[in-house]
Give the backbone structure.
Amino acid sequence: MGAALTDSVDFGAYPGATMASKTVSASGIATGSKVEAWVRCVDSADHTADEHMIENIKFVAREDSIVNGTSVRVDAYVTNPPGLDSVTADGRVYTDGQPSLLYGTWNFYLVWV
């Protein structure tokens, strides 16, 4: 039997990060379940529903992280980082400047069968 829930992930305080993860309590999820996560367009503590709709963010429910009957990890990341070209002081290489960053909390749906 499938199930669904809603939750949020936090990219931290401004200026934020390119990726965030959350381990979500998912009672009844089973190893081998098929899982999916996607943006939920409702206001969060930090962003409006409209910002959720237009932001370049992707949610991924990680099947490889399922703990039988307990939890699953959801990763969220910016989908528009620039290409690679020039090196920063920390050794990272970018073409169009630093990648886009997200900050604060963003809402998502999670389903599994």
